[in-house]
Each structure stands twice: as C-alpha cells, then as structure tokens.
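ok trying again, last paste got cut off:
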Amino acid sequence: MVSRMFRLETEVDKTRQDLLRRRLRDTNTTASPILRALRGTPGERELPLQVWALDDADALAGGLVGHTWTNWLHVTYLWVDERLRGAGLGSRLLAHAERVARDERGCTAVRLETWDFQAPEFYKRQGYDVVCVIPDYPPGITEYTLTKRLGSPGSR
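nice, full thing came through this time. structure:
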C-alpha cells in the first residue's frame, strides 16, 4: 500500500473553488445520463427569478428571490414588510413566481427552505409538503425543506 502525505488548508480560495466545482460537475455529468443530457441545453443553467412588490412611494414592500434550474423553481428568499403581513402579499408573490416558473420556464415543481419561526405553516397553506426536517440547524431552530408540484401551464 502506498502512503501519501497531503497538506490540508482551510483558506478561502476562489480559484480552487471554481476548479473544484468544474471537476465535480464533470464527474457528475460522467456518472449521470440525466445530467449528461442537460449539458449544452438551456436547462443546464440557473436563471434568476425575482418578484418585487413596491408600495405607492416605490419602497420595497416585499419580494421573492430565487432561480429556476431544469424544471425546478428554487425559492431562496421570500420577505414581506412586517406591517403588511397577513394581507396576502406573500401569497401573491409566491403565486406570481410559480406562474412565471411554470408558464414561461416550464417548471413542474418548487423547493424552498424555511425555519420553524419563519413560515412553514404559510407554505403548507400554499400547497407545499414538508420533505425534510433538520432539528438544531442552527442549534435551537428547526429547518424545513418543502416542495410543491406545479400544475400544467396555464392552470390556476
């Protein structure tokens, strides 16, 4: 058996990070016929999707930030000004993003993460299902991953 010595580093290195990402992508592409078929297609790239709600003074009242990739919408952030919560703005932002993802980008599903003190019940009311629960992430908080299947284009 050959023994090898390696130097391990913990520094942040953007060049190495990009190299690692490319090598992992290449390894995954080789291993998966599905990912291989995606290479070179529009579905291969993440496309930003953002929805903004502005009040009469053009101040930010709420917003959704996410991206689409293959046939999925990933919601990264959804926020509504505290004074406007409970008035349906969050539901409108989410529904609009779902419509754009489905009708304009061909998405068939959505995924997102939320903490127990944020909005798991809100998302459940919007038709989302809990698919993963991670207790103590961070300590004392539970993280939920939720998904939702989108209807066919043009459906409501």
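cool. The first strand starts at residue 47 and ends at 54. DSSP finds four helices and six strands in the chain.
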